[in-house]
Amino acid sequence: MDSDEITLEEKCENLMNVVVESRKRFGKIIKPKNQIPNIDVDLMRKEVDDFMADILERKKRVENLKKNLKDAQHIVLQLNKDKIGKKLRQPLSAETMLAVAKNNQLT
């Protein structure tokens, strides 16, 4: 048989036989591109639980910081309004006390 006399069906059949033989021969050697990972469910649950605990702990810290900041702002506002606190923040030297007394008498 000449190659001209081979029909299209015979060519396809020969190619399919070559594919089948090469798969038999090399299929055991070639590994698949994407291997299925072995998933440990207990380990995954533990990691998720640890992650959730970490998130909750950080959320609690942020809430405590917000509360402390609000308390500090409240204290600062009270100190700004406090007359005694203003007097205590002034320097307590004799010269300054005399200068304050003179200013009070002049006004």
From TrEMBL:
Record keywords: Coiled coil included? yes
Regions annotated as coiled coil = 52-82
Keyword list (alphabetical) reads: Coiled coil
Q: What is this protein called?
A: (apollo) hypothetical protein
Q: What is the lineage of its organism?
A: Eukaryota, Metazoa, Ecdysozoa, Arthropoda, Hexapoda
